[in-house]
TrEMBL record:
Its EC number is 4.6.1.17. This is Cyclic pyranopterin monophosphate synthase. Substrate binds at L72, C73, H74, M110, E111. Keywords: Lyase, Molybdenum cofactor biosynthesis. The gene is moaC. It comes from Caldisericum exile (strain DSM 21853 / NBRC 104410 / AZM16c01). Residues 12-147 form the Molybdopterin cofactor biosynthesis C (MoaC) domain. GO terms for biological process: Mo-molybdopterin cofactor biosynthetic process. Catalyzes the conversion of (8S)-3',8-cyclo-7,8-dihydroguanosine 5'-triphosphate to cyclic pyranopterin monophosphate (cPMP). It holds the Pfam family MoaC. It catalyses: (8S)-3',8-cyclo-7,8-dihydroguanosine 5'-triphosphate = cyclic pyranopterin phosphate + diphosphate. It comes from the Bacteria.
Amino acid sequence: MSQFDENGKAYMVDVTDKEDTLRTARAFAKVVLSKETLEKIKQGEIHKGEVLTVAKIAGIMSSKKTSELIPLCHPLNLTFSDLTFRLIDEPPSIEIESFVELKGKTGAEMEALTSVSIAALTIYDMCKSIDKNIEIREIYLLEKTGGKSGNFRREKKLD
């Protein structure tokens, strides 16, 4: 499948005749920040509000709007979307993992990746007034299931 026609012009891939199958995807992102900022997040001392709750809502909302953000991406009827956060003391960081699920004709990898990306950007936005050195790193697909291409599980990170 390609998103280019015989003349090299972009177009949306036709998935009309594909079977609906159960599809899932998980993605990962890492936000690196100062010890002070991480501590303020843990203590609920960020003036914009509860950072991880807002980031979770932003991630879920963005997973449902991925086709509005990525050209030629099919709109999907997600049946589940969730994020988890792990606070790491050394080096100070927040690991984000998303999970999305649906029954449909095309995979949900972009939805999972969009979800962790927007959650990471939300963390940055809520904390930028006290820490402009925040870095968003390592956004990647962890796994996907379903569809014609089968299952994928990331074995290791690339160097």
